[in-house]
Amino acid sequence: MASFNKVILVGNMTADPELKQTTSGTSVCTFSIAVNRRFTRSEQGQQTVDFINIVAWRQSAEFVSRYFKKGNPILVCGQLQTRTWTDNQGQKRYATEVVADEVTFVGPASSNGAPVPGGSTYTPEAYSTPSFNSASSASFEEIPGDESLPF
User: Fold this and answer.
1) What three-state secondary structure class fits 109?
2) Per-residue pLDDT tens over the stretch 48-106
3) Which residue range is the domain that position 68 belongs to?
4) Domain contains 116
């Protein structure tokens, strides 16, 4: 049977990320995000929130620790992972977390403290307002009626 494990989350950082190094020097960053559910509690009218633990490795870990802090919005794509271990008291422990494959900004980059090309806002050229240039219209041939069209 085929299987599929993909998680896409958008939420806010609940605390500053924690960056550590493994004994072999690999960067690992742990953090959690708050994700609002689509429904509210009817008796109180409050939004229900889930707190999701995230683990990022290598460049993603360094990226998160450099550009994100408590309260920042963040988008995380990754895989859901569960693990078990026995603690020092002999108790079996479980953890469920998202292992991040991709992490990126949500909303205006200036709110995240990230560098913004060209000033406070950045709009790709493809999204700018098109301009009309009457000089370029001279290269089009005007066809007087529909009867001369080849189709």
Assistant:
1) helix
2) 899 999 999 999 999 999 999 999 999 999 999 999 999 999 999 999 999 999 999 99
3) 11-39+46-111
4) no
- Structural domain contains residue 144: no
Is 62 within the bounds of a domain?
Answer: yes
Tens of pLDDT, residues 11-61: 999 999 999 999 999 999 999 999 998 776 666 677 889 999 999 999 999
What's the pTM? 0.68
Instruction: For residue 97, give the CATH number of its domain.
Output: 2.40.50.140
In a domain, 119, yes or no: no
Write the CA distances from 142 to 122, 137, 138, 139, 148, integer angstroms: 39, 10, 9, 10, 11
Contact of 34 with 109, CB cutoff 8 Å: no
Candidates 23, 115, 22, 20; CA nearest to 67 is 115
